[in-house]
User: What shape does this take?
Amino acid sequence: MLVIVVENVPPRLRGRLAVWLIEIRAGVYVGDLSVKVRDVIWSQIEQGIEDGNAVMAWTTNTESGFDFKTLGKNRRLPVELDGLKLVSFYPVEDDEN
Amino acid sequence: MKERVSMVFVEKGQIDVKDGAFVVIDETGVRTHIPVGSIACIMLEPGTRVSHHAVALAARAGTLLVWVGEAGVRLYAAGQPGGARSDRLLYQAKLALDDAARLKVVRKMYEIRFGEKPPERRSVEQLRGIEGARVRKLYQLLAKQAGIEWKGRNYDQTQWDNSDAANRCISAATACLYGISEAAVLAAGYAPAIGFIHTGKPLSFVYDIADLFKFDDIIPHAFKVAAKNYPNPEREVRLMCRDIFRQTKILKKIIPTIEEVLSAGEIELPKPFEEAIAPAIPNTENIGDVGHRS
Assistant: This one.
């Protein structure tokens, strides 16, 4: 199982993702692909992401049963707690300062 | 229990509930969500504060909160009250009170640990002696295999900094194992204090159960970690524990092992006595473990 969520990316990349995956909601892509294809897709995202951000999650043999990685700026960033991956949600940066 | 992630250590921050989710908030306002319902136990290290609401949520999700000291040396535990199943408690107490049944349980534990039946016609006390001697030898052997000088197991928590790397790694590893073992004992509806080999401690039964798994992988690997002189050995030990817990699927095995050990006592689960009146408000069905209050 592979899930990719993209935000604020150019339509060209979204079209590219739709080649391999099903877009079940705006920017949410789901599929079941091999590691090799997954890496190809990730490099495509790296090339076409521009100012957007993306996250990719896939089932694997970790304790939580999945792993994920992110690209681009987002308020949610992965953190690692003694081998368990969680997500930290950063507060809104104060624009006045 | 069996589908949960084993444990998560929280070092610093305010633990609270935000929009119904279990979160850790650090001093800069960064929130980290913890999927509390899919974790067996949460180890709270020094520097954490827990709100009332968060404890209530953890209890409802059947997740054990364990307050641990520096490097996971055990201080105190709560979160899951335990004792949700009177039938299991009475069964466990009956096994522990009956000399013949207790001996059978202890013999079964010995058999699981060492992979062979213990010598016949020994008392619990004698078995405990044999076990102690074997464990000391095992420690020596494992230390030798890992190439570490071993001066014996040092439990002195007040002299923590004086103890050697191997002892610290073993303590950190066993703290992880005790955490998930206690979560399993409570989830299965038994009492942590009623032990068979260990007695007189609040977690006697937890030590009994954890001992069944300890020497399979945890302790040998703790020695290996100690031999490598990592700058942060506790973290390495926890990573190792997480890997071992995953590989050995220990969370799937603990509760069935508890049942297996106790059933060796050959006593039936107590039936409700005739004059017992069933609860006026029937218990609701839930998907949690039997020992969880909900």
